[in-house]
Amino acid sequence: MLYFGAVNYDTHVYVNGHHVMHHVGGFTPFNADVTDQLKDGENVVIVKVDNKRHAEDVPTQIFDWWNYGGITRDVMLVNVPTTYIENYKLALSPRSQIVNGKSVNSKLSLDFALNLNTKEAGKQVTLSIPELKIKQLLTTDAEGRISTSFDVKQKMLQLWSPENPKLYDVELTLDGNTLRDEIGFRTIETLGKQLLLNGQPIFLRGVSIHEEAPNGGGRANGTETAHTLLSWAKELGCNYVRLAHYPHNEYMIREAERMGILVWSEIPVYWTIAWKNEKTFANAKRQLTDMILRDQNRANIIIWSIANETPHSPERDQFLGNLAKYARTLDNTRLISMAMEVTGASNYVNRLQDNMHEYVDVVSFNQYIGWYRDVNDAPKMKWEIPYDKPVIISEFGGGAKAGLHGEKNQRWTEEFQENLYIQNLAMLDKIEGLSGTTPWVLKDFRSPRRVLDGIQDYYNRKGLYSDKGEKKKAFYILKKWYEGK
């Protein structure tokens, strides 16, 4: 099996001159069975990639990050038996009622599902979780699937949380071959305007992150770079990150899980999309599927995001509404959200009015008062959010060049960004139901849209860290605010 972590964007793969795979999308994995194309001795793999963007793509031609091209994540040749486990999911059942971190019953329920690569009945799979003293012998049905639930004593199971990111060794054995994973168990739900993790209210102290290397540019890929970026977030006081605006690499997800950091994971339905194009919807749906199936066993992912800052229209509502409904058929253990825009404003009253409120569990929106609107307006602002759901501010912030100093009303200085954060955080504290924030952004990142000579130099400068890892003054303002949350 030839596996690609991600190739950007339109990819054709050839093995020894045979075309084995065509994949469209720059941020999700894909694979191809190349058994029949391999030969003894030397084999040749050719990957033909085109990273041009088109109007019908996801994302489309307008985007605000660097369009790195080619192979951006791992490539592996994986040896698998003729019949193998293609996918599996193990999670704490939504039926498990947890209040204040404890089950209302003496037992908790785990849901397990599995499918083979073939429709083969009667195959026996052993599921083992040694630490929980669980060993189940299960048998596939005519579709090559298993779907079951079983109980575990509450006193034996430690719930995953940022404070206790407990993972259990899990083994799946088929025909003598064992697949190993580490899986945590937790619940995430909403109650009115509250967000509940393991039945307890939680405030998401977050930050947005692009998949870019900590020092300079280039795609971030690997545990070491993931650990560096996430350590910067932890130093800021974060228990949560928004991985924007596309599915990040698996190293980032898994390292965040080990470090006790919750995750918002997103597909690149970004700004303007060809809402009426059936192929565009199929592409978005495919990327959503790949994101969920790859990471459905990661306890730290609590939100699937289906879009960012999309202009309103009936066609957009239908497109995103169908994506939200589809996501729920794949995964009923997480919340659905998207980064909306505040479109209704009158004087100093901002109203969030979005038809997508019917489809999301958490109301999230981006706002840039102080950057695209006068920072002095912040103390006067009132917010009207007419939905009985938790609120996350998915973006706010402004630009500053690290090391540039001046008056607080001088744009691009660290003092300007610092004052912007002071004013914004005081404003956000007044929002009823505020359950978290992910300001924009952890670190400066490359973008072809940011051309101001001597200041931006093709970098988005809204980072709390510079592209070289230098803390800006606003970092300390947000850190102190999070200490009170």
Give a description of the structure.
The protein contains 6 helices and 33 strands. With 485 residues, the protein is α/β, with parallel strands linked by helices. The strands form 10 sheets. The chain has an 8-stranded parallel barrel, surrounded by 4 helices. The protein has a 4-stranded antiparallel sheet with strand order 14-13-16-17, with no helix packed on it. A 3-stranded antiparallel sheet has the order 5-1-8, with no helix packed on it.
Overview in brief:
This protein has 485 residues and is α/β, with parallel strands linked by helices. Helices cover 18% and strands 32% of the residues.
Which key phrases capture this entry?
485 residues; alpha/beta; 8-stranded parallel beta barrel; 4-stranded antiparallel beta sheet; globular
Structural class: alpha/beta
What amount of the residues lies in strands? 25-35%
User: DSSP helix count?
Assistant: 6
How confident is the prediction overall: mean pLDDT? 96
Number of separate strands = 33
SSE order and pairing:
Elements: E1 2-4, E2 7-8, E3 10-15, E4 18-24, E5 30-32, E6 45-50, E7 70-71, E8 75-77, E9 85-92, E10 98-99, E11 102-103, E12 107-116, E13 124-129, E14 134-139, E15 145-153, E16 168-174, E17 177-183, E18 188-191, E19 194-197, E20 200-201, E21 204-209, H1 223-236, E22 240-243, H2 250-259, E23 262-266, H3 278-295, E24 301-308, H4 314-330, E25 335-341, E26 344-346, E27 349-351, E28 363-366, E29 382-384, E30 391-395, H5 414-428, E31 434-437, E32 445-446, E33 459-460, H6 473-483
Parallel strand pairs: 21-22, 21-31, 22-23, 23-24, 24-25, 25-28, 27-29, 28-30, 30-31
Antiparallel strand pairs: 1-5, 1-8, 2-7, 3-4, 3-6, 9-12, 10-11, 12-15, 13-14, 13-16, 16-17, 18-19, 19-20, 26-27, 32-33
Helix pairs in contact: 1-2, 3-4, 5-6
